[in-house]
Amino acid sequence: MKMKGIIVDADFCIKVGASPKYRYLERVLPELAEKVYIHKIVYDEVMVPVCAKEQIDSLIKQGILEIMDESKLAPLEKKVYEGTYCLLARIMMNPNRPRKNQGEICSLAIAKTKSIPYFATDEKKLQPIIDKALNTGMNDIICVRIEDVVQKIKSGELSAFKRKEAKVLWRLAGKRTDIFDRNIWPVQ
Fold first, then answer.
1. In contact, 42 and 51? CB cutoff 8 Å
2. Which of 59, 99, 105, 169 has its CA 20 to 30 A from that of 40?
3. Which homologous superfamily does the CATH classification assign to the domain defined by 3-184?
């Protein structure tokens, strides 16, 4: 079953969209969710690999992916966004490197404001921060990592993909194939 909506982070786009031969970003995102969003700051962050940016642009042209930012918010939504942004910035932003987590912060603030329930990222330690700072039991945000995508392929939930493609996706993300073969999806 497709997710209602998902907003994507730069690391997810860069890893999944890393190959000009295997254009998995164009294939995975429409399979994952009915509507896919990207914050303008994240869109601007994804410059390389060029094939990832091309896939994002292709999804935008097809109407599958929508660029979001604060300018599209109603006045009350802007207040929610700003409050959420400030809360996350206090937790996640390093004053010495203020742009380090800006894409995640902006994406999560938009997700909370617009009730986008899923965040496609490959950050391992982000879900506990979201749970503590944002998730209250209402309009909660769940991180979808590359491992989760592979598990959805394995379970048959993303039936357009097979084990071989899941393994290529895993490898594109810079993950070790021995871990895939041993722990994630052993050959039977």
1. no
2. 169
3. 5'-nuclease (3.40.50.1010)
